[in-house]
Amino acid sequence: MAALKKPLLVTGLVIVVAAAYWFWPAAEPTTAAKRPRGPMSPWAMPVPVRVVKAELADLRVQVKTIGTVTPINTVVVRSRVSGPLQQLTFKEGDKVEQGQLLAQIDAADYQIQLAQAQGQQDQNLAQLKNAEQDLALYSTLRKQNSISAQQFNQQQALVAQLTGALKSNQAQIDAAKLQLSYTRIHAPISGRLGLRRVDAGNLVQANDSEGIVTITQSAPINVVFSIPERQLLAVRDAVRAGNNLTVEAWDRDEQQLLSRGVLTTLDNQIDIATGTLRLKAEFANQQEELFPNQFVNVRLNIAQLQGVISVPQDAVQYGSAGTYVYIIEQNKAQIRQIQLGAADNGVIAVTGGLTGGEQVVLEGLDRLRPGRAVEVISDSAASAQ
User: pLDDT tens digits, residue range 257-267?
Assistant: First the structure.
């Protein structure tokens, strides 16, 4: 029995020593032991950031929308007479001036019609001259009572009839000349030609809906766009103030400014289906930067803000509590809630939350949190890297 108790006692002592070793606090390490043996965690290191200062700047108040380039005039050139198309005197895509000859219709039939009208006029003119001579003779004889009043009156009526016929002949001649002039087709407006729709040698019909070619006036040119109803008041106030509101046309990606123009017209009613109002701007388009029916991004400048605090739009963050930016205070990032105003070409006005001069974080935002240590990287250092 005593031999059995001895192994149990030894086993109990081993368990007690092991538990004491496990739960008893370890001795305080030396200074050398406290030093990290490996590299510091990247989440504990200062975050490299690039900053910009919140500065005073002049900003434009703009309305951004999408518009369509619309020619001021577009004309389908049609023949006003029928006949074989003898010649086309233009090249497709050329720029033409008003009055320039574009096509020639065979004029033979219309020259014959003019000759017939002129021959009829000459015939009636000879008859009139003879009737007037007889009337002069009848007048003398009437004074001598050699002829009756009825004969004299009949001769007067004949002269009047032939005089009227001459007027009708002249109208026929004028109509024939007009028809003959229509065989030479001229450009009704200045502009750029499209693709021809008929070739020389074909028989064309008067006022054919297809026409011969289309002319589009490209300089000046209009851009038609719409603005939401909520922006109407600001635009109307700017127009009533007598300001010439400038309009900018940008490409689809809003990377290239195509042209600048001036607002000319506001429509007289809001489209109830879309809740928008149509506007029209005119562009000089001397270099034809804008192309008819092209879609463009439109920026309507309605006001100019002088000396407002502004920051790049990329620095602004959006959260559940509103808009905010990260600013640098004592080499640490802190959140600052802000209120925003108008935006202009990547820069936005700050109407509340900043006083100017603060260092606002522009790059390196993804690893920031309030109180996180930062390392400000200058532009020269960033370019060297």
Answer: 999 999 999 99
